[in-house]
Amino acid sequence: MRWSDIDLVSKWWTVPATVAKNKLAHRVPLNPPAVTILRELRASAKQYAVWVCASSLLDTPVSHDAKKAVARIRRRVGFDSRGHDLRRTAASLMTSAGIPRLVVAKILNHVETGVTAVYDRHSYDGEKREALDLWARQLQRILRKRPRAMVVPISHEFSQAV
Predict the structure, then answer these.
(1) Backbone CA torsion sign across 94, 97, 99, 101
(2) From the CB of residue 20, how many other CB atoms can be counted at a distance below 10 Å?
(3) Per-residue pLDDT tens for 94-131?
(4) Extents of the domains making up the chain
(5) Residue 162: per-residue pLDDT
(6) How many whole angstroms separate alpha carbon 63 and alpha carbon 58?
(7) Considering 12, 115, 122, 128, which has the largest number of Cβ atoms within 10 A of its Cβ?
């Protein structure tokens, strides 16, 4: 995630086609908690930082150091997990909350196949924003039910591992 791809005023993150896995640009609406986190990160970031989560080198993303960070998180939580586990869980919980699978697919930037996909050129931006706002509220409810000591911010883990 590059700072240049984020608009905190309009609350959108645009993933360029050049870095998207499916080679299609992808607009991600930023819900209030995401905007708050990004504003805090921006305030503490080096002025010339390119990446939202920069490695210690500042000119490379933290993903280059992520293997160590992920291994450390796995050891601390005591079970094996993968980044796609987060996507799968979020997608499953969004559909269980009533968000249509097509909207979840658009949030995940999956390519739809079939004849209808050829003709449907709607951006789904409004639906994605509504769904991710609902998801943020659901996450906040989940976090309120957990004892505070069990919640470990990922940014803390990445800074410790980098």
Answers:
(1) positive
(2) 13
(3) 999 999 999 999 999 998 888 888 898 899 999 999 99
(4) 3-161
(5) 40
(6) 12
(7) 128
Distance from C-alpha of 25 to C-alpha of 160, rounded to nearest angstrom: 32
Phi, psi of 13 (to 5 degrees): -115, 120
- The tokens 């933290």 sit on which residue? 62
- Using the predicted structure, report yes or no on whether residue 4 has a pLDDT greater than 90: yes
**Which of the two residues, 146 and 40, has the higher pLDDT score?**
40
- Over its C-alpha atoms, the chain yields an Rg (Å, rounded) of 17
Instruction: Classify residue 23 as left (phi > 0), alpha (psi -120 to 50) or beta.
Output: left
> How many C-beta neighbours within 10 Å does residue 129 have?
18
Neighbouring C-alpha atoms within 13 Å toward the C-beta of 160: 12
* Coil/strand/helix, residue 2: strand
Q: What is the DSSP string of 92-147?
A: HHHHHTT--HHHHHHHTTPPP-SHHHHH-----HHHHHHHHHHHHHHHHHHHHHS-
Residue with tokens 């050129």: 121
Residues 6 or more apart whose CB falls under 8 angstroms from that of 38 comprise: 6, 8, 30, 52
